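User: I'll paste a sequence; please echo it back and then give the predicted structure.

Assistant: Echoing your sequence first, then the prediction.
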Amino acid sequence: MTGASTFHEPVLEWYDANARVLPWREPDAGPWAVMVSEFMLQQTPVSRVLPAYQVWLERWPKPVDLAVEAPGEAVRAWDRLGYPRRALRLHAAAQAIVERHGGEVPDDHAALLALPGVGTYTAAAIASFAFGRRHAVVDTNVRRVLARALTGVAQPSISPTAADQRLAVTALPADEPTAARWAVASMELGALVCTARTPKCDECPIRGRCAWVLAGSPPYDGPPRKGQTYEGTDRQVRGRLLAVLRSAEGAVPKTALDACWHDVAQRERALDGLVADGLVEPLAHSHYRLPS
């Protein structure tokens, strides 16, 4: 495996010259803005996140502003970002920040990890991007960059593994400020250049040292990687039901929800799932609303 330290300087120089200008990367963004962006960016592209992020931060510039609202308002503001349970988790995290940390996002990795909805990746990302800490921030883009550059394979494993985490740790620069810059730079490289389907190897700052390129860019030979579908799925039905509830001022009758999807069994299953997830509240007389 090629030494990871040889990649640091060219990747950091490339990032300085090519990084996208994003509001959560601005010097005055603050830890809460970084945290909101990390919740929103999970499985959602930047182009869809940007407008929702701007609206969210204008309405709730601090954790306490969100914490005092009903959780249903977070679900309403999440709009069409998808995976709306993230909105509930972010609301719960805001309440925990107010209760445990005086309304300020904690800078300690363990304290971040203890917040609702904050897993290994998100805790490392907030600690690194908001506070400049030295952590391995391992998303799909980073996993792909490291798999190609350091191990010579076309794609990482389908799901994250402990080996991915160990590899990312070995690739971290030793000092904290450089490690924090490397975390975001390697992620950006994967998002813009070392992409999954059509990598732009001619534009890559480490193409002359990449183990995969040096091996002749061998094709992926692992298990089939299936793309996610949406049309006709329970996810689509859940989205339709939530759209009806978001557009209403208060509770809506069951008949309004029934009208949004033709398959009765699938619609009922999706509605039951939303209730079980805490995203919808059933009321008397067959009415439903967002959680209060």
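The CA atoms of residues 36 and 53 lie 7 Å apart. The chain is about 55% helix and 5% strand.
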